[in-house]
């Protein structure tokens, strides 16, 4: 997901539904993102993400927020990553169109943003499993 978005040192990455924090940790540790923000509703998952960030030495470059992703202000994101169901993506579309600046990359694992035209779709093979990753760019998705 971070590769297809070409995350680099100027990026601020938001992971909506961050779970154990693996995406935000990889964003700052492996891709050199300036900052990464993980949003989740689960105290347990946020605690796990914090422990993983400490273990990986990146606690100072990530921010964890307990929030409903629909209520989270994502306007300073340059990359947003999602592994949410299609109906959640549908709910986020108007929010993204309102808050995200043109050029912001939105990467969705497995589930499309219906009605948006992806800039790129890649197939990721993981053993016997095949996953699709969709890249959308705000301002280029119509």
Care to describe what's here?
- The chain has 142 residues and is of the alpha/beta class.
- The chain has 3 helices and 7 strands; from the N terminus they run βαβαββαβββ.
- The protein has a 7-stranded mixed sheet with strand order 3-2-1-4-5-7-6, covered by helices on one side.
- The chain is globular, with a radius of gyration of 14 Å.
- It starts with 11 loop residues before the first strand and ends in a 5-residue tail after the last strand.
- The mean pLDDT is 93.
Short description:
The chain has 142 residues and is an alpha/beta fold.
Separate helix tally: 3
Helix fraction, binned, reads 10-25%
The stretches of 5 or more residues where confidence is low (pLDDT under 50) are none
Quote the distance from N terminus to C terminus. Answer: 21 Å
Give me the count of strands.
Answer: 7
Quote the beta fraction.
25-35%
Q: By helix and strand content, what is the structural category?
A: alpha/beta
Q: Spatial order of the strands in the main sheet?
A: 3-2-1-4-5-7-6
């Amino acid at each position: 997901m971070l590769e297809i978005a070409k995350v680099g040192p100027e990026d601020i990455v938001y992971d909506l539904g961050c779970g154990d924090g693996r995406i935000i940790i990889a964003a700052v540790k492996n891709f050199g993102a300036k900052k990464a923000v993980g949003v989740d509703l689960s105290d347990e998952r946020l605690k796990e993400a914090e422990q993983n960030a400490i273990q990986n030495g990146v606690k100072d470059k990530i921010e964890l927020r307990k929030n409903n992703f629909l209520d989270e202000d994502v306007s300073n994101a340059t990359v947003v990553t999602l592994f949410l169901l299609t109906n959640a993506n549908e709910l986020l579309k108007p929010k993204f169109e309102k808050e995200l600046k043109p050029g912001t990359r939105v990467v969705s694992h497995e589930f499309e943003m219906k009605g948006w035209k992806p800039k790129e779709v890649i197939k990721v093979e993981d053993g016997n499993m095949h996953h699709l990753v969709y890249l959308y760019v705000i301002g280029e998705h119509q």
